[in-house]
Amino acid sequence: MGSSANGVAGDPAATSSGGRGVDKGVDFANYFCTYSFLYHQKEMLCDRVRMNAYYNAVFDNKDHFYGKTVLDVGTGSGILAIWAGQAGARKVYAVEATKMAEHARELVKANKLQNVVEVIEGSIEDVNLPEKVDVIISEWMGYFLLRESMFDSVIFARDHWLKPTGVMYPSNARMWLAPIRSRLADQKMNDYEGSMGGWRSFLDETRTYYGVDMSVLSKPFSEEQKKYYLQTSLWNNLHPNQVIGTAAIIKEIDCLTVTVNDILNVRASISSTITAEETRLCGFAGWFDVHFRGSKENPAQQEIELTTAPSENHGTHWGQQVFLLHPPICVGERDNLDINFSMARSKENHRLMETVNMDKGYGWFSGLHQF
């Protein structure tokens, strides 16, 4: 849920990101406009895990910022740009695609950094900077890391504006998957069955009162409701005891070298061992972490991690992405799961992701989860 600085249709980045043919107005209505509201910025600014990680990454590694040029991609409220200025940056270019840039500009001025931080309203693909930069900092991560496809614009910024010796903040990212138990599986099944019960009552009433038999639509209605209730992934903040097996990495990203093509699809074959006593496998949870390590040539003095893993006390606004199984499966301690995971960018909306097919070693689960 990073701030906005992405490209649109007509831009080279829009084509490379999978956003080919995306109308600029539609993209703004579906995505950018959300970030132009202060209430949405406040939600992210209140995420202490997020804020502490970025704050510590900057101020524990001032040598990466002091006297340097910095580019903040999708600055939002401008807080990362302000921190970079407070850490001693010579110049900070803060790029924001929405009218939030006006608020960021006022905030920079109120913190007496207007001579260091320059707020630029526009997409990063359209911006022409007067120089290349030593650091690119951005909070680009969406749900399960890649939703929203904002990372495309960070890659564009890196390829066009980062010096060969420059560093990325964050520098690395990982995606994780683990088996879970959750009452959500029962709840969503009950919701589906309740919806179908309502449909059957509707059929009876329409036949009785209006003389029209609509039962021919029962199958497409059922498929529609299955997709809505059973085949759509869910946001959740899980407790660690809901994770019932070992977590595995399904994707590792080096922000200095990754390409857009590398993140259009995520495929992984992983294994997980059940660590709980006899319980129900209700699905899988996906989360991510990012690291601030600098680069091999210019490592951070203090490596910082930001994790969105299930936490007892420190959940984040990203939570976890939950992919439910219907029906759940009984598993026992030390059972092994072999999981083939596949996720791709949605063809209908390049901001969204879809998972198709999970082979979990206990039979075949085939479905479409869009998020």
Question: What features would you highlight for this structure?
Answer:
3 domains, Rossmann fold, 29% helix, 371 residues, six-stranded antiparallel beta sheet, five-stranded parallel beta sheet, alpha/beta, single chain, Hnrnp arginine n-methyltransferase1
What does this molecule look like?
The protein has 371 residues and is of the alpha/beta class. It folds into 3 domains: 158 residues, Rossmann fold; 147 residues, Hnrnp arginine n-methyltransferase1 (Distorted Sandwich), CATH 2.70.160; 46 residues. It contains 10 helices and 15 strands. The longest helix has 27 residues. About 6% of the residues have low confidence.
Net shape = globular
Beta strand %? 25-35%
Oligomeric assembly:
single chain
Broad structural category? alpha/beta
- Give the SSE order as H and E letters: HHHHEHEHEEHEEHHEEHEEEEEEE
The residue ranges in which pLDDT falls below 50 over 5 or more consecutive positions are 6-20, 360-368
Number of helices: 10
Evaluate the radius of gyration. 23 Å
**Can you summarize the main beta sheet?**
6 strands, antiparallel
Count of distinct strands:
15
CATH fold assignment of the largest domain:
Rossmann fold
Q: Estimate the mean pLDDT confidence.
A: 87
Percent range of helical residues: 25-40%
CATH architecture grouping of the largest domain: 3-Layer(aba) Sandwich
- The CATH class name of the largest domain reads Alpha Beta
Can you say what the CATH homologous superfamily of the largest domain is? Vaccinia Virus protein VP39
Q: What is the distance, rounded to the nearest whole angstrom, between the alpha carbons of the first and last residues?
A: 13 Å
Number of domains: 3
